[in-house]
């Protein structure tokens, strides 16, 4: 797992690593520039296009200059636009300025005429994580020039203007791609910055993970390689009971489809027995749509101790008696998954939080979260509030969206890397409820259930999205869940 450090820690990390490896700081910059240049050459193979690189006065600009040198023999025309005379810039900027070959043209920002270039590749190296105040003056002009230009725009590390860990105040470069180094900077994961970051690419510059671990601030980025070892293994003699009995509660008239999706997803994630509680008028729909599931009648709801996991809320409606909900929560003696109307009921009747079993997993999307903790200013604020909430109630908050975050009662916060925009379609969240309930029922610790569940759900969405693109529907995610286990070679 990759630690996400704050912007101010990047310099500390750099220094510590450089001294432990006995290398020069420009050599680390060279690795970053090489990674960027390799990606550029592979992805933009029209070498006749002009490449314009905007270089600010710090190491982000230094990266830009190193990149200019590295690509100067591949692209026919490479130009550096600079803002300060080299003597006033960072030491590694100066080193790379001296190493610029003659074939790279250099132009002072005020003399640059953007109208004279046609469809260039524009590289933004004005500021990276070292930005420490809102941008104004010449650099703001630079950002505006980039934003006015027409071409492919690629930010080095961070789109200039965006603070590494906070929300943008003012203007910033609107990039199509951001190639970031070592770990994703926190602010690249904020929904408010989507139009600035574009597609994020993560490039390793060779600082070992354990090095970052020593500086951990409790924020981690979860990738494919982290997941298989988190799974429980089952043996050849495993039986239905080992894979868990799961109960799902929800699905009022007109919304029973949410229970159909959740039940199918629970089964596809490997649960042994799935029971569903829906209003009696909806039972038949459920039985016909999911013959593998059993419909729980009210008498079965009296003894909740026989279920290994319970998922509550999709399509439930807001008319549910809060005392009935409280009774369910009180009588379950283990963590539950709460989604959709389960969350809306908690927001409507906050006293219900007192009954939520510790270790439970709550899965709000941004709106649902805001109903629970009103007054959210931006994503930074949301993440802090989610963290506080998780600690206070000793629960897991799965804040859904791109880079879904998982805030844990122990103060750690994880960011998921799988998933895609095509999953923003009705019922995707119901599928997640099923996946999470299934892992809880299979005996996973709630943290493992949350991390594995969110990752597999996103990965299933990626597999389905590769075939269905924007035609993806929630059922496609369900059908792709088994492939996620096959690809990870899970037993
Ligand atoms: N391990 C890694 O990740 C690696 C990171 N690397 C790269 O280094 C980048 C970080 O470089 P960095 O620290 O030099 O900061 P950077 O963003 O270039 O700007 C700082 C300069 O701008 C100034 N300044 C700040 N705000 C300002 C404002 N609003 N308006 C005007 N000026 C402002 C500030 O000076 P000040 O005025 O505050 O004294 C300073 O001169 C990082 O993003 C990545 O690209 C790789 O090369 C190697 C490995
Ligand atoms: N742009 C995106 N990138 C990655 N995942 C996404 C994106 N948009 C939505 N998702 C995922 O799809 C699911 C949508 O859930 P939710 O908003 O509850 O949908 P619904 O209420 O329609 O079931 C969440 O798991 C979320 O993380
Ligand atoms: K930048």
Oligomer: single chain
Return the CATH architecture of the largest domain.
3-Layer(aba) Sandwich
Which of globular, elongated, flat, extended, rod-shaped describes the shape? elongated
For this structure, what is the CATH homologous superfamily of the largest domain? Ribokinase
| Number of helices, counting only DSSP H or I runs of 4 residues or more | 16
- Rg over CA atoms, rounded to whole Å, is 25 Å
Number of domains: 2
Key terms:
single chain; 491 residues; alpha/beta; UDP-N-acetylmuramoyl-L-alanine:D-glutamate ligase; elongated; binds ligand NPW; binds adenosine-5'-diphosphate; NADP
Quick recap:
The protein is an alpha/beta fold. Helix content is 38%, strand content 15%.
Describe the 3D structure.
This protein is of the alpha/beta class and 491 residues long. It has 16 helices and 18 strands. The protein is 38% helix and 15% strand. It has an 11-stranded mixed β-sheet. A 7-stranded parallel β-sheet has the order 4-3-2-5-6-7-8. Strand 11 (273-277), helix 9 (283-289) and strand 12 form a beta-alpha-beta unit. The longest helix is centred in the C-terminal third of the chain and has 23 residues, at 446-468. The protein starts with a strand and ends with a helix. The relative contact order is 0.10. The model has no long low-confidence stretch (mean pLDDT 95). The protein binds ligand NPW, adenosine-5'-diphosphate and potassium ion. Ligand NPW binds at residues 10-11, 13-14, 28-29, 32, 56-63, 90, 127-133, 135, 139, 156-158, 181-182, 205. Its cofactor is Mg(2+); K(+). Homotetramer. InterPro entries: Carbohydrate_kinase_pred_CS, CARKD, Nnr, Ribokinase-like, YjeF_N_dom, YjeF_N_dom_sf.
């Amino acid at each position: 797992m990759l630690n996400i450090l704050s912007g101010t820690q990047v310099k500390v990390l750099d220094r510590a690593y450089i001294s432990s490896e006995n290398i020069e700081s420009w050599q680390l910059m060279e690795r970053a520039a090489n990674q960027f240049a390799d990606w550029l050459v592979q992805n933009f193979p029209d070498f006749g296009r002009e490449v314009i690189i905007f270089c600010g006065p710090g190491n982000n600009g230094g990266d830009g200059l190193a990149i200019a040198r590295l690509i100067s023999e591949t692209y026919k025309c490479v130009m550096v636009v600079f803002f300060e005379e080299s003597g006033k810039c960072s030491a590694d900027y100066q080193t790379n300025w001296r190493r610029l070959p003659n074939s790279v043209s250099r132009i002072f920002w005020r003399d640059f005429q953007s109208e004279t270039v046609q469809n260039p590749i524009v590289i933004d190296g004005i500021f990276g994580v070292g930005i420490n105040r809102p941008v104004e003056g010449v650099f703001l002009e630079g950002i505006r020039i980039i934003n006015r230009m027409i071409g492919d725009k690629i930010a080095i590390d961070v789109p200039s203007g965006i603070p590494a860990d906070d929300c943008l105040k003012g203007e910033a470069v609107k990039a199509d791609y951001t190639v970031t180094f070592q770990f994703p900077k926190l602010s690249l994961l904020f929904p408010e910055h989507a139009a600035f970051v574009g597609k994020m690419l993560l490039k390793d510059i060779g600082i070992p993970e354990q090095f970052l671990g020593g500086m951990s601030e409790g924020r981690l980025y979860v990738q494919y390689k982290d997941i298989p070892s988190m799974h429980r293994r089952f043996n050849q003699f495993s039986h239905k009971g080992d894979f868990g009995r799961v109960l799902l509660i929800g699905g009022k008239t007109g919304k029973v489809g949410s229970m159909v999706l959740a039940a199918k997803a629970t089964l596809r994630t490997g649960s042994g027995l799935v029971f569903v509680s829906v209003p009696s008028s909806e039972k038949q729909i459920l039985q016909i749509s999911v013959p593998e599931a059993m419909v729980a009648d009210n008498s079965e709801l009296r003894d909740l101790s026989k279920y290994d996991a319970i998922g509550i809320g999709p399509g439930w409606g807001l008319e549910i008696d809060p005392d009935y909900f409280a009774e369910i929560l009180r009588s379950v003696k283990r963590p539950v998954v709460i989604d959709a109307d389960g969350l809306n009921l908690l927001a409507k009747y906050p006293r219900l939080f007192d009954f939520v079993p510790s270790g439970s997993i709550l899965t709000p999307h941004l709106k649902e979260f805001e109903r629970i903790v009103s007054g959210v200013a931006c994503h930074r604020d949301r993440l802090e509030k989610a963290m506080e909430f998780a600690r206070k109630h000793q629960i897991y908050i799965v804040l859904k969206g791109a880079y879904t975050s998982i805030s844990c009662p122990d103060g750690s916060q994880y960011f998921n890397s799988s998933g895609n925009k095509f999953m923003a379609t009705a019922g995707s969240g119901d599928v997640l409820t099923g996946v999470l309930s299934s892992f809880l029922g299979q005996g996973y610790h709630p943290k493992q259930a949350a991390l594995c569940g969110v990752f597999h759900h996103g990965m299933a969405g990626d597999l389905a999205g590769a075939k269905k693109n924007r035609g993806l529907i929630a059922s496609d995610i369900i059908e792709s869940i088994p492939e996620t286990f096959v690809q990870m070679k899970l037993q």
